[in-house]
Amino acid sequence: MATPGTAIPFRPETEGVTGQLVDVLLVLALLLSACLGAVWFAKKRGWLDKWIGAAATGRPSQASLRVEQVLRLSPRTTLYQVKDADRGYLIVESTATARIIPLDAVDDGDE
């Protein structure tokens, strides 16, 4: 038991706010380096290309649609001719709606 007149032994605080800030920055640097290491490992294994997909490589996939022609019908309406691997479509886009018409349904007028 403490005798009267002696000081209460408090825990000494040698670190201040700067010590806590340094600890937080060290943990942040450790987490950042772990993330960079994981990305480097995934790139080395070829997993990163699969995760990112064809958009990052600049190569379109084989089954992609391509716009062949764009025709402005009015200030608010545009007609697109789109081709897939084996089919074609007409897309009429307006400010309120969009309509897709397969080219098989369009009459050529050659008959």
Would you write up a description of this structure?
The chain has about 110 residues and is of the alpha+beta class. About 35% of the residues lie in helices and about 25% in strands. The protein has three helices and four strands. It has helices at about 15-45, 45-50, 55; strands at about 65-75, 75-85, 90-95, 100. A four-stranded antiparallel beta sheet has the order 1-2-3-4, with no helix packed on it.
Name a few traits of the molecule.
111 residues, alpha+beta, 3 helices
List the helices and strands and how they pair.
Layout: H1 17-45, H2 47-52, H3 54-57, E1 66-74, E2 77-83, E3 88-93, E4 98-102
Antiparallel strand pairs: 1-2, 2-3, 3-4
Brief synopsis:
With 111 residues, the protein is α+β, with helices and mostly antiparallel strands. It contains three helices and four strands; from the N terminus they run H-H-H-E-E-E-E.
SS elements, strand count: 4
Mean pLDDT score, rounded? 80
Total helical segments: 3
Q: Order of strands across the biggest sheet? A: 1-2-3-4
Which runs of at least 5 residues are low in confidence (pLDDT < 50)? Answer: none
Helical content stands at 25-40%
Distance between the termini: 112 Å
Name the beta content range: 15-25%
Radius of gyration: 33 Å
Shape: elongated
Sheet with most strands: 4 strands, antiparallel
Structural class: alpha+beta
SSE topology string: HHHEEEE
Keywords: Membrane, Transmembrane, Transmembrane helix
Protein name: Flagellar biosynthetic protein FliO
Organism: Novilysobacter erysipheiresistens
